[in-house]
């Protein structure tokens, strides 16, 4: 089960690499709910992200997310600053991503901040920095007010807390929903103690399909096409769609280079001239096609060689394959 999931995630991230140009280390924008969930379920931030992304993560915390985390912390009376919460990892593990949304760089709403980083331009939705969003549903409302429930004030407070929790939940869902509308945003979230990588959203999927069919290239950067080509050339992982692509290439690809190689190995000692061999080739065209081509080249060269016996090996860099028939002819 776990192996199956990691394979699925590896494949998914590979598609983000091919289609949108994602690269390791993957930049992950983590939000306050995500950090709390990771802590509550006793996960370790980096290893958990690494397992989920099947690659090296680089988690980042925006200034606005940090402000949101600190805003809900009690103030330390001695320093007059909020206590650093347990669920906030040190900056060595989770560095700050500086963001500035206004003249005095004061923090804004966390969700607005994250969405502005995921898609900086307002007219075209595009995740050009290749961020991954890591989020979670907010921590359920704490029940420490239970004792006070009997009093009217306590009940009212409880209702306020519930309203707040509901608003927070709606906001978290809204973040995810809006992130899905931006093509090329992988979304990680914590769902009941499991870190999940969402399947590609419909807008992302549409672009992926477009790239695969080579039909439309909306939202594609040059980089992405290059990397796609490079990956295709390198012949990477075994993937259904990729295999299909490769097969198509094989079928129509020209093969002059690959045809010369077998010439060496399939060399037949008894062959004398180009002509009889050609006939042979016509009988078994598929296997000997390579040889046929080689002979076509060898025949005219052999003629020339008859006039310049001594030099026959030197000017001809074509390989031993072309020489051998000439030897036979000389004898
Ligand atoms: Zn911000």
From TrEMBL:
Keyword list, A-Z: Nucleus
Domain of life of the organism encoding this protein: Eukaryota
Basic residues composition-biased segments: 243-252, 301-312
InterPro entries in the cross-refs: Fcf1/UTP23
Disordered: annotated segments: 134-164, 225-331
Entry GO CC: small-subunit processome
Sequence ranges of Basic and acidic residues compositional bias: 139-148, 276-291
Protein name: rRNA processing protein
Organism: Aspergillus sclerotioniger CBS 115572
């Amino acid at each position: 089960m776990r192996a199956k999931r990691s394979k699925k995630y590896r494949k998914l991230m590979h598609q983000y690499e091919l289609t949108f140009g994602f690269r390791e280390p993957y930049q992950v924008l983590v939000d306050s709910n995500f950090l709390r969930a990771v802590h509550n379920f006793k996960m370790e931030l980096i290893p958990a992200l690494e397992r989920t992304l099947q690659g090296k993560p680089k988690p980042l915390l925006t200034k606005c997310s940090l402000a949101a985390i600190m805003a809900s912390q009690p103030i330390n009376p001695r320093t007059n600053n909020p206590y650093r919460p347990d669920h906030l990892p040190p900056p060595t593990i989770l560095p700050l991503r500086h963001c500035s949304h206004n003249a005095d760089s004061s923090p804004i709403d966390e969700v607005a901040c994250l969405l502005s980083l995921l898609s900086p331009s307002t007219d075209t939705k595009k995740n050009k920095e290749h961020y991954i969003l890591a989020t979670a549903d907010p921590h359920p409302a704490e029940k420490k007010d239970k004792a006070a429930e009997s009093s009217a004030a306590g009940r009212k407070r409880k209702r306020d807390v519930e309203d707040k929790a509901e608003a927070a939940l709606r906001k978290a869902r809204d973040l995810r929903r809006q992130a899905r509308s931006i093509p090329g945003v992988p979304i990680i979230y914590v769902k009941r103690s499991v870190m999940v990588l969402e399947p590609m959203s419909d807008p992302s999927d549409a672009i992926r399909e477009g790239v695969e069919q080579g039909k439309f290239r909306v939202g594609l950067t040059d980089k992405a096409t290059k990397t796609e080509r490079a990956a295709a050339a390198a012949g990477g992982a075994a993937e259904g769609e990729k295999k299909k692509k490769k097969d198509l290439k094989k079928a129509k690809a020209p093969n002059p280079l690959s045809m010369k190689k077998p010439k060496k190995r399939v060399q037949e000692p008894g062959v004398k001239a180009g002509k009889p061999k050609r006939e042979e080739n016509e009988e078994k065209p598929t296997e000997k096609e390579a040889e046929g081509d080689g002979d076509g080249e060898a025949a005219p060269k052999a003629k020339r060689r008859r006039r310049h016996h001594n030099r026959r090996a030197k000017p001809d860099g074509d390989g031993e394959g072309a020489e051998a028939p000439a030897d036979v002819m000389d004898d």
